Amino acid sequence: MSYGRCFTAWRAAAGSHWDDYVRHRFVQGMADGTLPRAGFLNYLVQDYRFLIHFSRAWALGIVKADTLDEMRACAATVDALINLEMPLHIRICGAEGITPEALEAAEEAPQNLAYTRYVLESGFSGDFLDLLAALAPCVLGYGEIGARLAQEAAPDTPYREWIDTYAGEDFQRACVEAGALIDRAVAARLGDTPEALPRWQALERRFATATRLEVAFWGLGVA
Ligand SMILES: Cc1ncc(CN)c(N)n1
Asked: Which interval of the chain is the signal sequence (predicted)?
């Protein structure tokens, strides 16, 4: 599955940080089923809060967009976050006795604060491209992880529902559309050879920083 030209280039520029993210011990633990449940739940509670801020950040994309097409694409991602991903968290946590009220009341961990506020700040002080570069590792990284784990995970891993959500058709379509949005937005603002511009390196750096913050976020679930 290809998530577009910019993602492919930014991912390569992130170097070893990308593998640290998508092949993290937490991810491998979900694949082979050895990830301790308590760590997974701690991650999931934090991730619920994370998704609230990420929905806000994609909504900020609507504010920063230049065209109706860009606004629609951002709105579709907000919809996927709120109506596809967050119900997964509510379902799994509910089955473990963690109520929606407890999810709402959870105190944000420093890793969560750092990542979500970095992305929001990228959008507040930067433009649409700054925001998209900071948002990209989140959606596209989980798409890549889901697709790989669907092939490689142990058949009896207790994390199958999580894997199926991110490997599933709806999430994968959201990834392809987000990747296409990034390519269109970059081409509209920076032209057909953006790699030659100084601005490109700033976008690569932003993508790499968000990738490092993803690595730190997995740490919420492993000792
Ligand atoms: C930390 C994190 N990064 C990415 C995703 C996928 N939207 C997520 N749910 N949580």
From this structure: none
Q: What is the CATH number of the domain that holds 125?
A: 1.20.910.10
Q: Enter the pTM of the model.
A: 0.96
Q: What is the pLDDT of residue 1?
A: 72
CA 92 to CA 95: how far, in whole Å?
A: 5
Q: What is the pLDDT of residue 2?
A: 86
Closest C-alpha to ligand 1, atom 5:
138
Residue among 74, 138, 144, 204 flagged as catalytic = 138
Q: Which domain holds residue 213?
A: 5-221
Domain tally, the chain? 1
Q: Which residues lie with the beta carbon below 6 Å from any ligand 1 atom?
A: 47, 50-51, 85, 138-139, 142, 214, 217
Atom of ligand 1 nearest to the CA of 214: 1
**How many Cβ atoms sit within 10 Å of the Cβ of residue 114?**
15
**What does the pLDDT read at residue 223?**
76
CA of 193 to the centre of ligand 1 (A): 30
| Minimum CA distance residue for ligand 1 atom 4 | 138
Q: Could you say which residues of the chain have pLDDT below 50?
A: none
**pLDDT score at 102:** 95
